[in-house]
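User: My notes are a mess, but here's the protein and adenosine-5'-triphosphate's SMILES. Can you give me a structure?
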Amino acid sequence: MGQCILEMKNISKAYDGHKVLKDVNLTLNSGEIHCLLGENGAGKSTLMNILFGMRLIHQSGGFQGELYFEGNKMHVKSPKDAMNWGIGMVHQEFMLIPGFTIMENIKLNRETLKHNIVSRVFGEELKTLDIKAMREDARQALETVNLNVEEWLQVAGLPVGHMQFIEIAREIDKSNIKVLIFDEPTAVLAESEAKNLLATMKKLAQKGIAILFITHRLEEVMSIADKVSILRDGELVCHKAAKDISIDEIAETMVGRKITIQNRAVVDRKDKEVILDIQDFHVMMPGEEVHGMNMQVYRGEILGIGGLAGQGKIGIANGIMGLYPASGHIIYNSKELSYLHTRQVLKHGFAFVSEDRKGVGLILDDTIDMNIAFTSLHINKQFLIKIGPFKFQNTWAIRRHTTKMIKELDIRCTSTAQHVGRLSGGNQQKVCLARALTQNPNILLVSEPTRGIDIGAKKRVLDLLLALNRKHGMTIIMTSSELAELRSICHRIAIISEGKLAGMVKPTAKDKVFGLLMSGKTMEQIQGQEVEA
Ligand SMILES: Nc1ncnc2c1ncn2[C@@H]1O[C@H](COP(=O)(O)OP(=O)(O)OP(=O)(O)O)[C@@H](O)[C@H]1O
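Assistant: No problem, the inputs look usable. Here's the predicted complex:
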């Protein structure tokens, strides 16, 4: 391990008088992979935002404490300052320009210029872009991250897995990069893609780059980390070499109690009444297209949908909910849904938790109350009181219900009136789930329900889904990149490849079977494996 490159000393930060970081000290050595862990809302992103000079920090009163880079006092007031010091950040939400090519995204604001006849005479400003050199640089950065795509392709429509690697390629193309922050980069990736990313991180660390890595997947931590730091309620409660700590100890330190997630025994279901029959279904969702899906969903089951990023698993629920153009037949309770319009589908008793919580899920500048009650209020006409001929919003009932949901899902907030935009990412995810559950749906479609939430909250969410299914017979279709999560509560798992159903398997099937189906093999090709559900 190299020398100390970065020191964060006595860092404290408050939002509206509420302390979210308390005297945090953290050191980072060059060439090390340092995992930063903690429950949702523990302060991880805030600490990284301070280091990267994010505007949000300075607009909300700045922070206390000092930063040192290679022994020199560092002032970062903007991401540009951070970049000048040699700090890069790969964000949780992608920051690429869809209409630009991969090369243009990698080189944005750092274009290589060359002299031409005119510029030699009239000066520097008339230099032209050196496309050849830029393509070579982009090619090299893509090779370092093992991404085998042409650099002149447009970013729009590429699978999410690719986007993550392009973001990293952009960061490592910067010649002075010494520290790289990864804020939950694997959350959007399937496990095999995440492995690729971890291998890339190792390669970067070997080149001497120091890596700060935020993740909720603790197995990843064990496979890659040199050091582990854990935040709890804004305080640094552990700073250890990874070899001296176990997964159980990490989980316990994060949440302050023992946590174990086990596979629930899957009850083999005898009644197989079809509630939803999906026939020749096509969805035009860029990057997640569905091309002729056929699948039946049984009443009262938890059906898992898995597959690699970009293969169409995400497109299915989005198509059914009318969020992207779709064609084919959706037969619900033996009747065809004539056209898929979101409002109509919601009225039929469907609820949806989107994988895109910022885009589709939440109204960020409204309160937790309103976010949770919104769909039920407008579609199901819940939470209304009738006075004479008029109907009014029953604010008291909304507040009472929201308080119950906050408790049930352990949403960390200051009050039911807090704006959702001010919650941590994981807590926003819980609000999306609370809204869907409030609708009391017949069919619940959940995409990536535990993305970005900590291990304690994950157990709570999976337990809740299981309880809704077992106690109330709710049919649940859960799409997830985490196979382990699908296996832990689903009755059957559909693997999607190239926009079609590759196979429907039991959760107890071997890893190899899932791997083969994900890589494009069909059920016929893997016959004899005793897998069919
Ligand atoms: N813009 C903001 N205004 C007010 N409070 C905020 C703001 N952003 C974050 N917070 C609060 O700061 C605390 C720490 O949030 P932060 O996003 O750093 O947590 P985190 O550990 O990254 O969580 P997660 O794992 O859910 O992403 C939370 O209580 C959150 O509600």
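The first strand starts at residue 4 and ends at 15.
User: Great, I'll file this with my notes.
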